[in-house]
Amino acid sequence: MTPTPSHFPPAQALLLAAGRGQRMRPLTDTTPKPLLAVQGKPLIQWHLEALARGGVGSVCINTAWLGEQLPARWGSRFTPQADAWDGTGSAPTLALQYSMEGQDFGGALETAGGIVRALPRLDDVFWLLAGDVFAPEFAFSNAVRAAFARSPLLAHIWLVPNPAHHPEGDFGVAVLPGGRLLAHNGADAPKHTYSTIGLYKKAFFAQPWCPIPVGNPNGVSAPLAPLLRAAIDAGQVGASVYPDRWVDVGTPERLAVLNASAAVSTALH
Asked: What does the alpha-carbon distance between residue 115 and residue 126 come to, in Å, rounded to a whole number?
């Protein structure tokens, strides 16, 4: 019997934070991109706070470039600051663990390689998100996760309107009878941009979709996009369009705009 949302075990998440942040240099020469300050907090902290509000119990963070700085900053537990916790009672605490790709293999394993490396630490269903995007209002819903776990799909991804730096988008959205949404690769239909937030099942990272053995013992580097496109073509990936704030904090200019907008908002209030 599939558990109802109220009885579903606490969620797990994998937070991708291993990249070099080449486009963010020189800011990332001494600081990993997830620890760069966005509106007064490290970028990754916005995700951790949202995950805690959503009832996620534990988060695995993969690291490589300057990776030792993340466990040095957060350790094995994270509790949201008072201004980020809008519930009653004490704020929830996230258990943190780390997949140290730089320490184990000398560098990052790309997205799919890093996910498969961390897979033994994760449940059969888990949230996946990149540590270099800003989406503070995203709700990590337990009910949505439970519905996805009951579905036959291997992944469910959130898409956003195409930003100026990525006007061609990544994936389209097909509306099926009953209103169900699937991602598609069609060239003729309008496309959205992958937010880098999704729900995944471990089966997505097994044959025939992924040839890398669980745990990636040999440190194989592999991107996620080819796996995702193959699963989309097979009708195995659901989709939602996320309408709220989302920024790929990929350049110093985008970071400056985010911080300037916060400064203007503070001055007005």
From this structure: 11
Which domains are seen in the chain, by residue range? 10-268 (3.90.550.10)
Of 1, 49, 10, 5, the C-alpha closest to 143 is 5
- Distance from C-alpha of 191 to C-alpha of 189, rounded to nearest angstrom: 6
Is residue 134 a contact partner of residue 38, using CB atoms and an 8 Å limit?
yes
**CB atoms closer than 10 angstroms to residue 67:** 22
Q: Which two tokens stand for residue 246?
A: 């989302």
Cβ count within 10 A of residue 120: 12
Residue 107, pLDDT > 50, answer yes
The residue that leads in pLDDT, 34 or 266, is 34
pTM score, two decimals?
A: 0.90
Average pLDDT over residues 6-32: 83
Give 84-88's long-range contacts (Cβ < 8 A, gap of 24+): 84/49, 84/52, 84/53, 85/49, 85/52, 85/53, 86/53, 87/53
Q: What are the pLDDT digits (tens) for 182-213? A: 889 877 778 999 999 999 999 999 999 999 99
Separation between Cα atoms, residue 120 and residue 130, nearest integer Å: 19
pLDDT at 65 over 70: yes
